[in-house]
UniProtKB/TrEMBL annotation:
Start and end residues of each IspG C-terminal domain: 297-397
Organism for this UniProt entry: Iodobacter fluviatilis
Family, per entry: Belongs to the IspG family.
SUPFAM superfamilies: Nitrite and sulphite reductase 4Fe-4S domain-like
Any Gene Ontology biological process: isopentenyl diphosphate biosynthetic process, methylerythritol 4-phosphate pathway
HAMAP family associated with the record: IspG
Protein name: 4-hydroxy-3-methylbut-2-en-1-yl diphosphate synthase (flavodoxin)
Amino acid sequence: MTTISIPRRKTRQVQIGNVWVGSDHPVVVQSMTNTDTADAAATTKQVYELWKAGSELVRITVNSPEAAAQVATIRANLDAMGCDVPLVGDFHFNGDRLLRDYPDCAQALGKYRINPGNVGKGSKRDEKYAFMIEQAIKYKKPVRIGVNWGSLDQSVVVKLMDANAKLAQPLSADAVMREALIVSALESADQAISWGLDPNQILLSCKVSHVQDLISVYRSLAARCDYPLHLGLTEAGMGSKGIVASTAALSVLMQEGIGDTIRISLTPEPGGDRCTEIIVAQEILQTMGLRSFTPLVTACPGCGRTSSTVFQELASSIQSFLREQMPIWRLQYPGVADMTVAVMGCVVNGPGESKLADIGISLPGTGEIPVCPVYVDGEKTVTLKGDHISTEFQTIVLDYVQTRYAEGGAKRQEIKPKVIALKVV
């Protein structure tokens, strides 16, 4: 798959550890742990898993002295494991005290996330916020000013509501709330700059939990500043609801060139894999043609012609295999993430879709001859049949990767396939 050029909103560039955000840099995928940061071993393990899954920034909660005391240890543990992903400290309420009392924490983090609505009230708010900005300046750390619908600075809301009430044609309460989010973010950025923070160390976010509100807020925010913007539908929900809502909102904005980092805030199933949100973020970017992370598998949905589950099993098997190999392939075979693979279920669209992919296999539908033609770069190369189709097709994929994407070809690696047995009947 070839990436396409969607005109990006021109922004400042912000460096977060070894990651650049904004301007013409690729949209960055990030995630957040749900472990207790005070448990250094568990948090290190989850950060590492998120990084291996493709998270380019990982946010951790820093909410207590016990948590702050472990941040430097977590950073050291990750470095020892060869994991250089920048850590983002998520601060609320007591962030000023934690940054003051735990300088090792302040230094170990790659970025601070500060919610203006949860810093404090009145003069105390300004005092606490100013101190956190001073620490960012001292340790040369960028700051994400993250405004959230559920914890909005009420002084901003009251001020705008009062002004709105005096208008001849007042706006709706929802419109005022959306404006309050934007004003809070922009005014907080102006304050940070007045205290000495470099504008090139600022990112903004204004998170809400409804699709149309998010689109409206970010369109307006993007038009009124040049800071990089972090996109995310907060409290998106569980399962398909969270995936669909996040995809709908973020895709519209990114198609308009808005958004420099993204997170898919899914509520995991009990015991569910936190890495799911990373896969969703990657697939949104890849299916839009904005970035490539892993080879895409095209597979038909099935119909009355495909009463056998063979093509479904093969599609699932090969997709899992591709994801498992990507940490190795990404380093050894540049460009392999752009590869496309088709696993089709019958003769109607099977041969055509298989020819359009880099590698494709067309399995027989109900009543068809039990053979499976394989197409490589649009040409039929072999016909598979029998009980070992899955293993044989996987071998063909390995051959293709090692031949096409390695300079001058490559010697086959001994990779034992993790496959299921398939039999054409």
